[in-house]
Amino acid sequence: MKKILLLCVGLALLGCKDTKNETGVEETTTGVSANDGLTLFAGEYIYYADAAVLQIGSSSIYGVILNEKTKELNALAQTYKEEPTDGVLVQVRGLIVPKPEGEEGWPNSIEIKEIISVKKQNSDLNKAVILEQKGYVED
């Protein structure tokens, strides 16, 4: 009986698969799978002033490499934005690219290869605090 239980536990442990890639980032997929090496990402996409990020959940933020697909995604996102700082909900497929040595930026970036969907974010979550600097004149 103990041998059967031990065998079942062993098979269960061997059946579990860790989905970390060589960059150490845990990848999550939501059912769309292909053998092309692309990963499905779903989260809030924000593009502002020639920089883009994709926030997945509350703990993962990736830089987004600016390319033709990013330009296409920005054009689609404009229809859902009320302010330039608003984010949109996206599902994209792409590659995780580690930050080159000696460069500033996020530890990992995403190179978008395919746009699956773009949706408007809940308007309560799209409220950004915008601060203005007022010039003061001294006497």
Q: Profile the largest sheet.
A: 5 strands, mixed, barrel
Using the CA coordinates, give the radius of gyration: 21 Å
Shape: globular
Number of strands: 5
Q: Give, in order, the helices and strands.
A: HEEEHEE
Biggest β-sheet: strands ordered side by side in the sheet = 1-2-3-5-4
| Stretches with pLDDT under 50, minimum 5 residues | 1-33
Number of helices: 2
Report strand %. Answer: 25-35%
Distance between the termini: 91 Å
Question: How much helix is in the residues?
Answer: 10-25%
In round numbers, the mean pLDDT is 76
Q: SS-based structural class?
A: alpha+beta
Structure write-up:
A 5-stranded mixed β-barrel has the order 1-2-3-5-4. 16% of the residues are buried. The radius of gyration is 21 Å and the shape is globular. The N and C termini lie far apart (91 Å). It has helices at 2-15, 68-78, and strands spanning 39-48, 51-56, 60-64, 88-98, 108-120. The protein has 139 residues and is an alpha+beta fold. The model is unreliable at 1-33 (pLDDT under 50).
Main features:
five-stranded mixed beta barrel, alpha+beta, 2 helices, about 140 residues, about 20% helix, disordered N terminus
Short description:
The protein has 139 residues and is an alpha+beta fold. It is 18% helix and 32% strand.
What secondary-structure arrangement, pairings included, does this model have?
Layout: H1 2-15, E1 39-48, E2 51-56, E3 60-64, H2 68-78, E4 88-98, E5 108-120
Parallel strand pairs: 3-5
Antiparallel strand pairs: 1-2, 1-4, 2-3, 4-5
